[in-house]
Amino acid sequence: MKIIVNSIFVDDQDKALDFYSKILGFVKKHDVPSGEYRWLTLVSPDQQEGTELLLEPNAHPAAKEYQQKLFADGIPVTMFGVSDIRKEYNRLVEKGVHFTMEPTEMGEVTIAVFDDTCGNLIQIIQQ
Known about the structure:
Layout: E1 5-10, H1 13-23, E2 27-34, E3 37-43, E4 52-57, H2 61-72, E5 78-81, H3 85-94, E6 99-106, E7 109-115, E8 121-126
Parallel strand pairs: 1-4, 5-8
Antiparallel strand pairs: 2-3, 3-4, 6-7, 7-8
Domain VOC: 1-127
Pfam family, one: Glyoxalase
Organism: Halobacillus karajensis
């Protein structure tokens, strides 16, 4: 068994697609109409056959509440790995990304947290 899709709730699929592709650098894999919304996934550019990130609409009241409460409590919804967190942090800051936590050493790892502009906090980690 392997993980093939990981979803995060977003408040606007188009805005999320722009942020995750143009700012973060992920590559669109699927964009399929699905009723009022879309099955919209992205992948890492260097692992295009790897795990897909589903930008899932937060249209359901429970999804919206879950997303809002995690954000309010400062809890990231997912984590992305980077090889050089300070370099990635600087690149994202230059693109206007707002960080709620600058790169911080936590034992053997360094983490940082940013706002994805779509209702979520995202953590990056250098192991």
